[in-house]
Design a protein that fits this description.
The complex is a heterodimer of chains A (174) and B (431). Chain A is built from seven helices and no strands. By secondary structure, chain A is mostly helical. Chain A is globular, with a radius of gyration of 19 Å. By secondary structure, chain B is of the alpha/beta class. Chain B is extended and about 95 Å long. The chains are: A mainly alpha (174), B alpha/beta (431). Chains A and B meet through α3, α4, α5, α6 and α7 of A and β1, α2, α3, β5 and β6 of B.
Chain lengths: 174, 431
């Protein structure tokens, strides 16, 4: 039965919204400790993004990720050193990508279709966290992670500048 | 390899990809500056999301076949069709973009359905007045589920034409027209059809109606035989479209020209269906002409010319149109002039065509209903303006009637008056 383009209605995608709120809440809780203000601020920012995507017009909808990124970024910056906040930050980042894939204004099944695309970030987070867990504590963790990320940023910048690098050459003969 | 082939469906980053990359880079810098690994862990998925989405998507431009058609009747237009992916891919990732032609309004939200590699789409539009427009082929894009990257899908589709004109126009083909052939009947049409002069007998086919069966011949032959007729040409008709700008202003002129174009398309189709020869003259700055002709190819020629007709930028003198018409069309061709007769120069065209021997009938789409819909004054002032406009129009039409029968076309979705006038015998039609 035909529906509106991407038409799942405003009630669809509630699970991903709730998951993102929970992940952001856990992350802010872990990062902020007893600072209730940080938890509230992160949740408000994430809630604002959720509301924007769900109810705003087509013009404002693309800005929905901005408050979410700001909220998560704030929590990450003030978080204490430790493996648990790092794991929560990585998980929040992954849940944010899942939330992006579960857009109620696009056809259902976005999370399932985005599975292959989410695999690489998930593996990278897992590897970083495991290496941080196994390596000696202290600034070595930061150094290894920063080295990995500098490499990642260099690769991303290179790829963003050359989108044709993803094109597969068509065979001249079949 | 041509440039078009090289640029077909390249990968494009969407703004969200840049936002994630910038956020990831910012968190990385903050993490290093604060000697805190937590922002780095948050940055990692953000930085990798866009390249991962690009790698997971199609590595070259997908291709699809689009079947689109315009349905509905009257003012309703239902533009629907399907997009079938030829290459590997999922319909859920396809974005269908339909451009609504000018003059059409959306009557209900667009609808889409997806199953496997097939997407069906439906757009419901309404036309304000009779129209003939081209709906451009739909554009299809593949976009990853996170909305980070996209590619244009190579689509095999052709534009769809939406034609809406008053229903009475379909009966106009039965009007008796004057012939302008040098020696009528000298060159006989090889076409055979269901009406006209008896031509011969052939074996009947299932689609033959009972009245075409030659019962006596069938009884003698022991099998069903049907009569075959050589269709009569009903005559010649010239559709003369006035596409010059007037004092009404470009917006109103454009809409009235759109109405005239639609009427011309309907009238031409109807006459051509009845095997009449139809010519088209569009008078903008100069005269664009489709010579008298008939047949299916001629329908396309007339339609293409009408679709390409635009309001002229310069108001050309009426003499130019009348003189140019005489170069292409023999005097005596029944001429249907479609003009709003909005001002003096437009009205001049009627006597000038008459003087060159064209029996003219004027169909004049009235600007009053469109102007009345654009209310800017108080009720009293609007009523006064409408009354003055009607008086002015009546005077102009009366002036035109001195030279040729002139039909005021105010109710755009009906041409009953015009058709019934044309269907009168020629002797009673003369002014």
């Amino acid at each position: 039965m035909p529906t509106a383009p991407g038409g799942r209605g405003r009630l669809a995608g509630g699970a991903s919204d709730a998951t993102l709120l929970v992940a952001a809440g856990v992350f802010a809780g872990v990062a902020g400790g007893d600072r209730a203000l940080l938890l509230a601020g992160t949740l408000v920012a994430v809630g604002l993004g959720v509301v924007l995507r769900r109810f705003a017009g087509a013009g404002a909808r693309p800005f929905a990720p901005v408050p979410i990124l700001a909220g998560l970024g704030l929590a990450a910056v003030v978080s204490p050193l430790g493996l648990v906040p790092a794991l929560a930050a990585g998980a929040a980042g992954l849940v944010f990508l899942l939330w992006l894939a579960d857009d109620p204004h696009r056809p259902a099944g976005g999370v399932r279709r985005a599975g292959a695309g989410l695999l690489l970030p998930a593996l990278a987070v897992a590897m970083s966290w495991v290496s941080a867990l196994l390596l000696p504590p202290g600034s070595a963790t930061v150094g290894v992670a920063a080295g990995l990320l500098v490499l990642a940023i260099g690769a991303v910048a290179f790829l963003l500048a050359r989108p044709r690098g993803f094109d597969r050459e068509e065979a001249l003969t079949s | 390899m041509s440039e078009a082939e090289t640029d077909a469906g390249p990968l494009e980053w969407r703004p969200l990809a840049f936002l994630l990359a910038a956020s990831g880079a910012a968190f990385l810098l903050l993490g290093v500056a604060a000697r805190n690994p937590t922002p780095l862990f948050l940055a990692l998925p953000l930085l990798l999301a866009a390249p991962a989405a690009a790698f997971a998507g199609p590595r070259s431009a997908p291709s699809a076949r689009v079947d689109a058609r315009a349905e509905g009747h009257g003012a309703d237009v239902l533009f629907r069709g399907s997009v079938a992916l030829r290459s590997d891919g999922r319909a859920g990732d396809l974005i269908i973009e339909c451009d609504r032609p000018p003059g059409l309004t959306e009557s209900r939200p667009p609808r889409e359905g997806r199953a496997g590699a097939l997407v069906t789409f439906e757009r419901a539009w309404k036309v304000r007045e009779p129209t003939i427009v081209v709906v451009p082929p739909v554009r299809v894009r593949w976009r990853d589920p996170m909305g980070l990257v996209e590619r244009a899908v190579e689509v095999e589709a052709s534009p769809t034409i939406v034609e809406r004109y008053p229903p009475e126009v379909t009966r106009i083909g039965a009007v008796r027209l004057r012939r302008t052939m040098l020696l009528p009947g000298e060159s006989r049409s090889p076409r055979l059809g269901s009406a006209g002069e008896f031509h011969g007998i052939r074996p009947a086919v299932a689609s033959d109606p009972p009245r075409r069966i030659n019962w006596r011949a069938s009884a003698r032959a022991g099998e069903f035989l049907a009569n075959e007729y050589e269709p009569d040409r009903t005559g010649d008709v010239l559709l003369f479209l006035d596409a010059r700008p007037s004092s009404l202003g470009p917006a109103l002129d454009e809409r009235l020209l759109g109405i005239s174009r639609a009427a011309a398309a309907g009238i031409a189709s109807s006459f051509l269906r009845e095997k009449a020869r139809v010519g088209l003259a569009v008078f903008g700055e100069f005269l664009d002409v489709v010579p008298l002709g008939m047949g299916k190819a001629h329908v396309q020629r007339v339609r293409a010319c009408l679709l390409g007709t635009r309001l002229a930028a310069v108001r050309a003198p009426s003499e130019r149109g009348a003189i140019a018409a005489a170069r292409y069309f023999r005097p005596g061709v029944t001429t249907l002039l479609l003009s709003p007769l909005a001002d003096e120069p437009a009205s001049d065209l009627v006597p000038l065509l008459r003087r060159r021997g064209y029996p003219v009938v004027v169909l004049s789409p009235s600007p009053i209903p469109i102007a009345a819909a654009q209310r800017t004054l108080s009720d009293e002032e609007e009523a006064l303006v409408a009354r003055l406009a009607r008086l002015l129009r009546r005077e102009r039409l009366a002036e035109s009637w001195r030279y040729a029968p002139t039909i005021d076309w105010e109710e755009y979705w009906s041409l009953a008056g015009f058709v019934s006038f044309l269907r009168r015998p020629l002797s009673r039609r003369a002014n």
